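Supplementary Text 2. Reproducibility record for the structural model of the 110-residue chain.

All settings were left at their defaults, and a single model was retained for analysis rather than an ensemble. We include the record here because the model underlies the residue-level annotations in Supplementary Table 4.
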Amino acid sequence: MNAACRVVARRAYSTRSYIPPNLANGVKSAGPKAESGDLSGLVEFYKRIPKGAAEAAKPTNWIARYRAKYWEGENASFTPILHAMLLVGGLHYTLAYNFHLKNHKNVEHH
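Retained model, structure tokens:
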């Protein structure tokens, strides 16, 4: 493959994303519509495109909802650190009780 073919191929693939698929098929089709220059299909295509900014996606799982509620934007707070401290403290007490404290309920060995 020579250099000229590579350049042509690269240009063909780099501009492909700019042409909507419905337009490429509709304008190139043979028939009276293509010969007369009727662009009603093109106009209808661009009328259906949404205008304005896209809506923000709503979080779907519990981690994303927690992050949106406590970490991001103007809702950022110290609360996640407190939640982490309570989680680690509760986990520590649970493990300490199961491995040590339940065996010494009546202070027999102290």
